[in-house]
Design goal:
Helix content of chain B: 55-70%
Helix content of chain C: 10-25%
Number of strands of chain B: 2
CATH architecture of chain B: Up-down Bundle
Chains: A alpha+beta (301), B mainly alpha (224), C alpha/beta (810)
Low-confidence stretches of chain B: 1-5, 218-224
Mean pLDDT of chain B: 88
Oligomer: heterotrimer
Number of strands of chain C: 33
Strand order of the largest sheet of chain B: 1-2
Largest sheet of chain B: 2 strands, antiparallel
Distance between the termini of chain C: 43 Å
Order of helices and strands of chain B: HEHHHHHHHHEHH
Radius of gyration of chain C: 26 Å
Number of helices of chain B: 11
Shape of chain B: elongated
CATH superfamily of chain B: Transmembrane di-heme cytochromes, Chain C
Number of helices of chain C: 21
Mean pLDDT of chain C: 97
CATH class of chain B: Mainly Alpha
Distance between the termini of chain B: 23 Å
CATH architecture of the domain at 5-235 in chain C: 3-Layer(aba) Sandwich
Chain lengths: 301, 224, 810
């Protein structure tokens, strides 16, 4: 992680920069070409090795997908979906490498209450800085892709770092390095857009008329993009959202409006109370009241 | 305001258990508000330092919340009878201007709790219920997988709104205490002066007196 | 592989059949994705299951296990019927025009010469008609009824698309679609590559599966070209090296044969193997066999081997049966005829058929030595692991000695990959604990045995006492020393045969290549095909120059490729009779009028005239073989047989079920199940998350695929009441195992000869040792029978049954 700290931070959670729109420089992107992916899980192996995580040995749960879901120790996961194409009647085994999309507009960062626990570097990488993480799990709720995973011990959230520590020293992510079929490639965003265009042309020549790039606008684009043979139906790829965006609930919750409205209300109320007190004076109990009470009590005796 | 000085008679208002519980709840509320504000408003994140840092604040917040909820439940059970709404309460609340200008004499005679206090009681009950439910849903350490993430998103928003409302109510609560001198001792000593009762809760005072639970110049036996 | 991994990038069409390259060879599969992305190549997958290779294929068709020959002969028939034959290649470069002896025939599933009692053929009648000049008789017009081409057409006549559908279960239109795609590569500028693996070899007619594809590739003119060939994807990183070095009972290094007891002296042995050309002007490179053999014997016994003692040919063991393969070995163990077993880098308890029989055999041994980096199941066969290994240790007396060895990353040496590259590697770390290299252990055993023989004598001590063992540290020969020995050296000055005064290699020097080997005892060479790997210029295997002259994907400066650094075998066939490349964009070599030039080492003599010297220089014909003569024990052509355990009868020859030439031991035959009792087809395979039984000892791989499962179709799941993720019991005639079910759309039932046939897919990575959940391997269930030619067990097609079950007790 130390190497990553040398990179320029353009946005940091729970600070003023969290709500600005950053200017990216030398944006990096990982492009995952689903049509070249053979689901070998070398990316998963490389990920766990590089990040030195220990994912416990589980069980076969009815699918090649293992572990069955992303975990705090497994930052990337091959998701498998067996889909019969209604047009051709043929089976397609749709395999997608899931993991952090490194959104240009990251919902996790917006939701995070701890200053500097989630940062976005100038190259677009969204990184969790664990010594600043307080373990609230708000990032989990903020993410439109359901990526961060909460670990019980230590109670913190984890996700793909896009190997920020490797990228910081000019290397690519471990998964891209390990991918045997070059389904995962890494470079500048421009290079990746260009590469993707070539791949899409090739896929169209093979009858995938809806082949396209997944770089959703709802989060201002991502720094992990997919080439999808069926780009018109991203949900086919194990529920990749077709229009991801930071949830309106999260927007309201973390939005500027709430800050102003509720803080203003509190401040107004406090000011009002002080004014009320100062202007009218305290509503004191008078001697008369005491006498009346005394009379009442004694009268009763 | 001692009885012997001005011949003021003190009347028992809150029993010891109520007072202890109240102050526990109050303390919890303040801690929750401070830590909650820290999580809610990044500029207040420094407040987590009071708890030993963000992480301990995050760990403590839900536990404190549970204590508050239990304490409030106790108070709720103790006060629910006294907080039922009556027609006088509606009339009282409709003359809020008189209330705020301190003209208690123009208001219907008030029992143990006035309509404002009753509203605060019920509002807090409701808000604490919302805070408890949404708090448990978003208590990531233990309940992360009990609900869906969309549900958690709604919960975390509901928690924030409820908390903000509770704090607003709390501000009013504090203000009323300071604006009406003599009130605080009800929760400290457990007694109020007869005059305080006469001015603010005359109906209650009459009930206490008629029940023979008020003795001049002395501390009365527990009210209610 | 005839070609090399990187060369797949040059293909126009890739067919993966009899293998699952994406899963079992993911790194090599990179070149398929490159071919697709960079030159628009198409990928066809034909497999019983919709594999991860199929997931990225352009076209997939299902096939019932064990019916590949039918499919491939069907494609050959399609190509011939539709005139999709590269005639300019087929006529001169194959033996299509050769006339076969009179008397050959094929009827009711049997070739002529069959002896049912011996279960073998008299193959003498499967040869060519030889003319008075001593050469084979040819009919270049291909009209003679007994010419190979017409025999072939006759042989494949039954393999219509309808027959293919009926036997293979491949829908007719899918078969035709694939046949049409393949047929397009008969154009000289279109090339298909074939990638296969154990899906073809692990059948009782495995070698014939591969022959069928080789024949198809020859008819299409795809052998010898860039992006073509018949490419075996080897199942271990160094299994190519294992076969090259002859680690089989019937071979000695360099594909020389272990002598048979009917060959008492060197002359009788060499006579049978020194093939004379069958056409004029041909090279028939095996004519040099005596040079390879004598040099090998000199490498074995050095100064003790000389012309007057037949170079100690007598010290080489002689076979009394065709081979002592592993099936034979376990049969002998089970019969109590083999008492000791040294098991080096091998886990037969999980990798050889009918595990019950393997356990019985091991239990009868006096001693078992296991040399392995891992704590294998075989080494622990005597331990009770509940249902997973239900043995009674108190009844097993075998003494087990485990010698922990280094693993590949802990020592230096070379690995030979599928593409025949010998790549040197260096130790990446120190071995743990008491682990020692295999070489050190073998040296210790040798030296101690030698000392015992010297002291105590014994039967025939000479081969041990005289074994050439001139290493700097006899107790620990270095990999470089062994490599130099394989390369070979001049024991005396090697001179030019044309000019004996001219010294080509000075005494004591490393040989530049096997071209300098001599049969007079002046050279020693441990493995002739590896000659050139470690010359006076140094260790060629350690070269790492990745320059690619002409962008031919040849990379001649990277490591060393046998033979003589040639990257594409038969590359002479990439050019026509005038020596011009069939496809100029695929130039590897070409004839410049006086010699062959290009990017690869020509697979012919540098000055061999393209008009007269045909490209297949190892064959006495000079051509490739559509007709195998008597070189295959089970027929000159591939033909359809059912597996020994099959769900249906052989529809083409109802009387012949399994391969009639395959060896079957009586006890194993009694253990074959029938389709009545076991109606489901079982097949075994690897998954990409694991490597055999090794990686279950690694926590990362174990996590990625933690538990044994079997795969069935949704249809079979419904029929049997089995749900995804539930426990099932799978049993064959030989054993019963339990697994978690994977109910999947990737497996579909076939309609075979009008009958619905289901598959149970059984991956092979689990056992009772290691970090994964305990499980079983398919070998618990599989029958004991091997390929007729090479005895590779029939793991890919057998019969089982399945039912819902409960978790095992451990």
């Amino acid at each position: 992680m130390d190497a990553a700290r040398t990179m320029t931070v353009v946005r940091s959670s729970a600070t003023a920069s969290a709500r600005t729109t950053p200017r990216f420089e030398d944006e990096v992107t990982k492009l995952i070409d689903v049509s070249k992916c053979i689901g070998c899980k070398a990316c998963q192996a490389a990920c766990t090795e590089w990040n030195d995580t220990v994912q416990p040995i589980g069980y076969f749960t009815g699918s090649y997908q293992n572990p069955p879901d992303l975990t705090a120790n497994m930052f990337t996961l091959m998701r498998f979906n067996e889909w019969v194409n209604p047009k051709s009647g043929e089976l397609e085994w749709l395999i997608r490498k899931d993991g952090c999309m490194h959104c240009a507009d990251p919902g996790c960062l917006a939701a995070c209450p701890a200053p500097g626990a989630i940062v976005q570097y100038a190259n677009g990488i969204v990184d969790f800085v664990h010594e600043n993480c307080i373990g609230c799990g708000y990032c989990v709720k903020g993410c439109p892709f359901d990526i961060p995973r909460y670990s019980a011990a230590p109670a913190k959230a984890y996700k793909c770092t896009l190997c920020s520590d490797r990228v910081a020293v000019g290397d690519g992510p471990a998964c891209a390095k390990a991918c045997p079929t070059e389904a995962i490639v890494f470079g500048t965003k421009g290079e990746m857009l260009h590469h993707a265009a070539g791949r899409i042309t090739d896929l169209k020549s093979r009858g995938f008329e809806s082949a396209g790039l997944y770089n959703p606008d709802g989060v201002n684009g991502t720094h992990v993009m997919y080439v999808l043979p069926h780009a018109d139906q991203p949900e086919l790829y194990s529920n990749l959202p077709s229009d991801p965006h930071v949830s309106p609930w999260v927007r309201v919750w973390k939005g500027a409006a709430k800050t102003y409205v509720s803080l203003a209300a509190m401040a107004a109320l406090i000011v009002g109370a002080v004014v009320h007190h100062a202007a009218g004076g305290a509503n004191r109990v008078s001697e008369k009241d005491e006498q009346a009470a005394k009379k009442l009590i004694e009268g009763k005796e | 305001m001692a009885a012997d000085q001005a011949g003021i008679t003190f009347v028992k208002r809150h029993a010891l258990d109520v007072r202890i519980t109240h102050w526990i709840v109050a303390l919890c509320f303040i801690l929750l508000a401070l830590s909650g504000l820290a999580f809610f408003f990044p500029p207040f994140f420094f407040l987590t330092a009071l708890f030993g840092g963000g992480e301990t604040a995050r760990i403590l917040h839900p536990w404190i919340g549970l204590v508050l909820a239990l304490g409030y439940l106790y108070l709720f059970l103790r006060f629910v009878g006294a907080c039922l709404w009556h027609s006088d309460d509606s009339r009282w609340i409709s003359r809020l201007g008189q209330v705020m200008s301190g003209h208690d004499e123009n208001l219907p005679e008030v029992g143990k709790f006035n309509a404002g206090q009753k509203l605060y009681f019920w509002a807090m009950a409701l808000l604490i219920l919302v805070l408890l439910a949404s708090g448990v849903i978003t208590w990531n350490e233990y309940f992360a997988h009990a609900t869906s993430i969309p549900a958690q998103r709604i919960a975390v928003l509901a928690h924030s709104i409820a908390a903000a409302l509770a704090i607003l109510g709390f501000i009013v609560h504090i203000h009323m205490v300071t604006w009406e001198p003599g009130t605080l001792r009800a929760m400290v000593n457990g007694t109020v002066s007869g005059g305080w009762g006469w001015k603010h809760h005359r109906k209650w005072l009459r009930e206490v007196v008629s029940a023979g639970r008020a003795k001049p110049g002395t501390n009365a036996p527990p009210a209610e | 592989m005839t070609n090399l991994w990187t060369d797949i990038r040059s293909a126009d069409l890739v067919i993966v059949m009899g293998g699952n390259a994406a899963e079992a060879h993911p790194c090599g599969f990179k070149w398929v994705t490159r071919a697709k992305a960079e030159r628009g190549a198409r990928l066809i997958v034909v497999d019983p299951r919709f594999t991860r290779t199929a997931a990225v294929a352009d076209y997939y068709a299902p096939i019932r296990p064990g019916t590949d020959i039918t499919f491939l002969l069907g494609v050959i028939k399609y190509c011939i019927d539709n005139n999709k034959v590269q005639w300019d290649y087929v006529k001169p470069f194959t033996n299509a025009a050769f006339i076969v002896m009179e008397g050959y025939g094929f009827k009711d599933g049997l070739f002529t010469g069959y002896d049912p009692a011996k279960r073998s053929y008299d193959r003498a009648g499967w040869d060519y008609e030889i003319g008075p000049d001593g050469y084979a008789v040819l009919d270049p017009t291909l009209t003679h009824p007994r010419c190979v081409w017409n025999l072939l057409k006759q042989h494949i006549a039954p393999y219509t698309p309808e027959t293919v559908a009926r036997i293979c279960g491949t829908p007719r239109e899918k078969f035709l679609h694939i046949a049409a795609m393949i047929a397009e590569t008969s154009a000289p500028n279109k090339v298909m590559t074939s990638m296969y693996a154990l899906g073809w070899t692990q059948h009782s007619y495995g070698a014939q599966n591969i022959r069928a594809m080789a024949m198809l590739q020859l008819i299409l003119g795809n052998v010898g070209l860039r992006g073509g060939g018949v490419n075996a994807l080897r199942g271990h990183s160094n299994i190519q090296g294992l076969t090259d070095l002859g680690l089989m009972s019937e071979l000695i290094p360099g594909y020389l044969n272990m002598p048979h007891e009917t060959e008492p002296d060197l002359a009788s042995y060499l006579k049978k193997r020194t093939f004379k050309p069958l056409q004029p002007d041909q090279i028939s490179y095996w004519r040099n066999y005596p040079k390879f053999m004598v040099s090998f014997l000199k490498a074995m016994w050095g100064d003790a081997a000389s012309a007057d003692n037949d170079y100690r040919y007598g010290w080489i063991p002689k076979l009394d049966i065709p081979m002592y393969d592993v099936i034979q070995a376990f049969e002998m163990m089970a019969q109590g005829k083999m008492n000791g077993y040294v098991c080096q880098g091998f886990n037969p308890l999980l990798s050889f058929p009918n595990r019950t029989k393997v356990t019985t055999g091991l239990s009868k041994l006096k001693f078992l030595v296991v040399m392995d980096p891992l704590d294998t199941e075989t080494a622990n066969f005597w331990q009770n692991h509940g249902e997973y290994n239900d043995v009674d240790p108190s009844k097993i007396e075998t003494e087990v000695i485990q010698l922990p060895t280094t693993c590949f990353a802990e020592d230096e040496g070379s690995l030979t990959n599928s593409g025949r590259w010998l790549q040197w590697h260096w130790a990446g770390g120190d071995p743990p604990g008491e682990a020692r290299s295999d070489v050190w252990i073998m040296a210790q055993i040798h030296l101690r045995m030698k000392a015992l023989y010297a002291k105590e004598g014994g039967k025939l001590p000479e081969p041990i006492l005289n074994l050439d063992w001139r290493y700097k540290d006899p107790a620990d020969p270095t990999p470089a020393e062994l490599a130099r020995e394989m390369n070979g050296s001049a024991l005396e000055a090697v001179t030019d045969p044309q000019d004996p005064a001219k010294v080509l290699v000075e005494k004591g020097k490393q040989l530049p290549s096997f071209a300098f080997l001599r049969d007079d005892g002046s050279t020693a060479c441990g493995c002739w095909i590896y000659s050139g790997c470690y010359t006076e210029a140094g260790n060629a295997m350690a070269r790492r120059n990745n320059a690619d002259p002409g962008h031919a994907e040849i990379y001649p400066g990277w490591a060393f490729s046998w033979p003589v650094n040639r990257r594409i075998l038969y590359n002479r066939a990439s050019c026509d009779l005038s020596g011009k490349p069939w496809d100029p964009t695929r130039k590897i070599i070409e004839w410049n009028g006086t010699k062959w030039v290009g990017y690869d080492v020509p697979d012919t003599l540098p000055t061999a005239n393209p008009e007269t010297v045909m490209p297949f220089i190892m064959d006495a014909e000079g051509t490739s073989r559509l007709w195998a003569r008597g070189l295959m024990v089970d027929g000159p052509f591939p033909t359809h047989y059912e597996p020994f355990e099959a769900p249906v009868a052989n529809v083409l020859a109802p009387g012949v079920q399994g391969n009639p030439a395959a060896r079957v031991f009586p006890d194993d035959r009694a253990d074959f199940g029938t389709a009545t009792e076991f109606p489901l087809v079982g097949t075994s395979y690897r998954l990409t998350e694991h490597f055999h039984f090794w990686t279950k000892h690694d926590r990362v791989n174990a996590m990625l695929q933690p538990q044994f499962f079997v795969e069935i179709s949704e249809e079979l799941g419904r029929e049997k009441g089995i749900t995804d993720g539930a426990w099932v019991r799978v049993w064959s005639k030989r054993a019963s195992i339990k697994a978690v079910a994977c109910v999947t759309k990737r497996i579909r039932p076939w309609t075979i000869d009008g009958k619905t046939v289901h598959l149970v897919g059984i991956p092979l990575h689990w056992g009772f040792m290691g970090l994964t959940r305990k499980g079983w391997g398919p070998n618990s269930l599989t029958p004991v029978v091997g390929d007729a030619n090479v005895e590779t067990p029939e793991f890919k097609a057998f019969l089982v049954n399945i039912e819902p079950s409960t978790p095992p007790t451990s």
